[in-house]
Amino acid sequence: MYSGCIAAAGAAGILAKQGKFDEARTELEKINLDEVANHPAYPGRVLAAYGDILVKQGRKAEAIAKYREAAGLKDLDASQKAAYEKTIKDLAP
């Protein structure tokens, strides 16, 4: 379960670095957030990865929505929440 999440997120990161954003999002879509919800870090990281890809595509409003979703997760580590909130602040018009 977690290994699939890590593998898909890793593949998405590589594809995004190559500029293959649609393929990267397809990899992230393979991750079932409900299956990894009991590990507080994974859902946030997946949502933030979506946000990162959307930023690279110039889709700031959609990216901010993903970061807000990540920051709003319960049981999220305080440092992760702070990082997502900083990203939202940096992206906000």
CATH topology: Serine Threonine Protein Phosphatase 5, Tetratricopeptide repeat
Kindly state the percentage of residues in helix.
Answer: over 70%
Q: What is the β-strand count? A: 0
- CATH superfamily, please? Tetratricopeptide repeat domain
**Proportion of residues in extended strands:** under 5%
- What's the shape? flat
Short description:
This protein is mostly helical and 93 residues long. It is 72% helix and 0% strand. The chain has 5 helices and no strands.
Describe, in plain words, how this protein is organized in 3D.
There is one protein chain. The protein is mainly alpha-helical and 93 residues long. The chain has one domain (2-91): Serine Threonine Protein Phosphatase 5, Tetratricopeptide repeat (Alpha Horseshoe). It is built from 5 helices and no strands. Helix 1 runs antiparallel to helix 2 (21-29), helix 1 (2-17) packs parallel to helix 3 and helix 4 (60-71) packs antiparallel against helix 5 (78-91).
Summarize the topology:
Blueprint: H1 2-17, H2 21-29, H3 41-56, H4 60-71, H5 78-91
Looking at this protein, list some descriptive labels.
Serine Threonine Protein Phosphatase 5, Tetratricopeptide repeat; mainly alpha
